[in-house]
Amino acid sequence: MTTIEGVLFDFSGTLLHIEPAERWLRAALAAGGTDMADDEIVRRAAALERAGALPGGAPPAELPDALAGEWEIRDRDARRHRAVYTGLARQVPLPAPELYDLLYDRHRTADAWQPYPDAAEVLAELHRRGIRIGVLSNIGWDLRPVLRAHGLERYVDTCVLSYEHGLQKPDPQLFAVACRELGLAPSAVLMVGDDRTADGGATALGCAFLPVDPLPADGRPDGLRPVLDLVGRG
Questions:
Q1: Which of 16, 23, 113, 204 has a 20 to 30 A CA-CA distance from 57?
Q2: HEC string for 174-230
Q3: Closest Cα partner for 173 from 149, 204, 216, 151?
Q4: 3, 188 contact by CB (below 8 A)
Q5: What average pLDDT score do residues 41-54 get?
Q6: Does one domain contain both 118 and 225?
Q7: Is the pLDDT of residue 234 over 50?
Q8: Per the database entry, which stretches of residues form a coiled coil (predicted)?
Q9: In the predicted model, what is the mean pLDDT of the chain?
Q10: Which of these three, 91, 111, 131, is where a domain ends?
Q11: Percent of the chain with pLDDT over 70
């Protein structure tokens, strides 16, 4: 078996988890100075969640025909990503039109994301062992400031983001880019992620794959620690 010399981590549902939809909506309302009754906030947040409007949250319960084609390739372009998610949000009536953009902007902030409890510990230990570390994400915006704000970027050697390359997982080309960024052959790289289709696509290139469960952060205290058993100790 080839020794693992580098680890690629997915972002959402793997290293960090997005905030609940109700908190997300409350933050956007506060940013816009818009009032809404508590019971209405609860109802609208649930509707936004069903619509799949929260990036990093649940997918749409029912995808509108007008967005179906764009949904499949949403992570290849920043403008498309915003258009798709604000389009999904607009299915839910809100009291001010600017709230749809405020919701999208909110999910890109560090406050909207909670690292998994073992994320910093695992990344720090891998770094100590001399393991190359990358973040490989299907995403439409720059997640580096979020990693930096949570103290994780210091351990990361490279970030490969779908929208910056016009490719998205499970396309083998994106995994190939990430392996080149790490300076390693795919056979020496482990991909860690919560999506067996998207992240598991790394195996087509010859990478190993470790799935994790995208539970809320407080419900998965040690889901990343098995990574440490799969790489050499320094």
A1: 204
A2: HHHHHHHHHCCCHHHEEEEECCCCCHHHHHHHCCEEEECCCCCHHHCCCCCCHHHHH
A3: 204
A4: yes
A5: 98
A6: yes
A7: no
A8: none
A9: 96
A10: 111
A11: 98
Q: What is the mean pLDDT of residues 24-48?
A: 97
- Note whether residue 1 is domain-resident: no
- Written as six digits, the tokens of 145 are 């400031």
Residue type at 57?
A: G
The span from the CA of 69 to the CA of 59, in Å, is 14
pLDDT at 111 over 80: yes
Indicate if 24 and 101 belong to the same structural domain: yes
Q: What is d(CA 190, CA 7) in angstroms, rounded to the nearest whole number?
A: 5
Cα–Cα distances (Å) from 31 to 100, 122, 230, in that order, read 12, 34, 44
- Whether 200 and 186 have beta carbons less than 8 Å apart is answered as no
